[in-house]
Amino acid sequence: MRPRLAAFLSIPLAVALLAAGVAQSPPARAEASAHDGRSAPRLLVILAVDQMRADYIDKYGHHWTRGLRRLVDEGAWFRTAAYPFMNTITCPGHATMATGAFPYAHGIVLNEWWNREDGRLNPCSSDPEFPYVSYARPLGGGASPRNLRLPTLADELRTQSTIRPRVASLSMKDRSAIMLAGRKPDVIAWYNMTAGGLASSTFYGAEPVPFLKEFTTRHPVDADFGRSWTRAMPEDRYLFEDDVPGETPPAPWTPRFPHLVQHFPGQKPQLVYELWRQTPFEDEYLLRATLATIDGLRLGSGPGTDFLAVSFSSLDHTGHDFGPWSHEVQDTLYRLDGFIGELLDAFDRAAGRDGYTLALTSDHGITPIPEIAARGGLDAGYVVPAQVEAKAQAALEPVLGPGKHIARITHTNVYFAPGVLGKLKEHPGALRSVMDNIATLPGVLRVIDGSTLPDSVGSANRTLRAAALSYVPGRSGDLIVVPRPYWVIKGDDVTTHGSPNPADARIPLIFFGRGIKRGEYFQPASPADIAPTLGFLAGVTMSAVDGQILHEILAPMPRHTSPVLGDSR
Q: Contact at 8 Å (CB) between 124 and 87?
């Protein structure tokens, strides 16, 4: 039995649910109550904000007045929510929100992992068998949810509902939209930089959705070229310094505002699309596309329960370039507060103020720029993959002889070349020698033998359990390198995430709307609790979860209020 599932099956939880006035029922009965307007929400919403640290609410929330402010003040806010697994990265995080399970179960271990069979990286949502469907320029490649091993909340809602739900998922990243949507959304779209606009995949349909195609025709991304990203608030309202060591914005930008989105002489034409992705203009575009989808599908206005997932990506791009304490991150959040306010207004109109239930969270946090942390006296720095490989090679060559013995290092995962692991088994102590040699690098907390992790899911050691919850045989590395707090795995960005350390693992988790009791809650929780909790409110049972129904936030649900706009479909 999975660790969190035992708690779900306990008698005390059932008693607590009854005490809260919420009785469990089979899906058919719960759906029937949705039909007569007394129980299930008309709309379930998952809002993800990519790379939103939990402490952003306390640090920067005093500037918010619209959507984020409303969710914090009127929702059920889990103050200590965190991912308990190691690979705090976009694709695993979104898959966990959607399925209610952790990576060892849903199978999404990283954004991309090394395929031992063909010797190539395997992006989590890539699938050449299902070509992209472009809403803008022609596009090569393809995508699908084939690597996801469990059904999502949207999948279960569609399967178990007696009234067919409308399902939509939108993001500026393909992996985010795909993991949240599952297998049969009515609308799914994401931004593709090569296409210069929105895209989908033939897995979901051979042609663009007409109303979304009309939207993209009327609102091309190129219309934002020439805009300048400036501060939305007076400069003295921003915390910390604006220009600090380590910030690495894309050239020709400087670390200081303003940031101009335009074609620059001598730069590749594609650069302007990359610059656009670094600004809140990206989130604003996603908002407009989402509003068009709410109207186009009439989400929340019918007799059943619909589903919408939206994942905002701009904060992630900004944080990687400027760090979590930058003016750019604060400005992105301030603007996002307004965008989410517009979304909540749209939900109020479509489903009624008491007609929808929403969960807001993030896929991961981010570690501060190591140069800034070190300047403050903290032990901080970079773990360099090339140095990890050199340490491994130095320990392997006395045993195996010269040659390339490491196939790939992908983030914290070290993949041996074909045949190496088998040879090491013939030399007792050789593998331990490799692990110990890597562990001598500054910033490395420990190195874990991946083959031991399937038996460590229930470990009392927090780090070992975190690695086990992220480990999938065949997809994960042979060795797992765990960085110390404030140390990051060196890549293309000035700072990143992907560790079990609190800066990366702690995220906001807020439930809001129909059936939710407002308040601040301090018990353990994670985004894996979203799918079972929202599913419970809609009368849907998730098939396999590590998360739990957060019964303490559930309130008796009164009759639906009438939507401000529209009636039933």
A: no
Q: Return the bridge partners of 214, or none.
A: none
Which residues, listed in sequence order, are joined to residue 114 by a DSSP beta bridge?
121
Structure tokens at 105: 């179960």
Residue 104 CA: distances (Å) to CA of 97, 107, 183, 218, 303? 14, 6, 20, 43, 37
- What is the spatial distance between Cα 97 and Cα 83, in angstroms, rounded to a whole number? 10
Q: Are 74 and 518 in contact (CB under 8 A)?
A: yes
Angle at 237 (CA atoms; ends 236, 241), nearest 5 degrees: 65
For 64-118, write each residue's pLDDT tens digit.
Answer: 999 999 999 999 999 999 999 999 999 999 999 999 999 999 999 999 999 999 9
Question: How many other C-beta atoms lie within 10 A of the C-beta of residue 37?
Answer: 15
Contact between 407 and 418 under an 8 Å Cβ cutoff? The reply is: yes
C-alpha distances out from residue 337 to 62, 105, 333, 449, 539, Å: 11, 34, 6, 43, 31
Residue 274 DSSP class: H
Which H or E run contains 489? strand 487-489
In this structure, how many other beta carbons lie within 10 angstroms of the beta carbon of residue 237?
13
Q: If we measure between CA atoms, which residue out of 281, 237, 499 comes closest to residue 370?
A: 499
Contact 462, 216 (CB under 8 A): no
pLDDT in tens, 459-517: 999 999 999 999 999 999 999 999 999 999 999 999 999 999 999 999 999 999 999 99
How far lies 437's CA from each of 312, 388, 394, 442, in Å?
A: 40, 9, 8, 11
Q: Measure the CA–CA gap between 111 and 99, rounded to whole angstroms.
A: 17
Phi and psi at 152, nearest 5°, equal: -90, 170
How far from 251 is each of 240, 247, 256, 278, 323, CA to CA, in Å?
Answer: 23, 12, 12, 12, 17
How far apart, in whole angstroms, are the C-alpha atoms of residue 149 and residue 167?
20
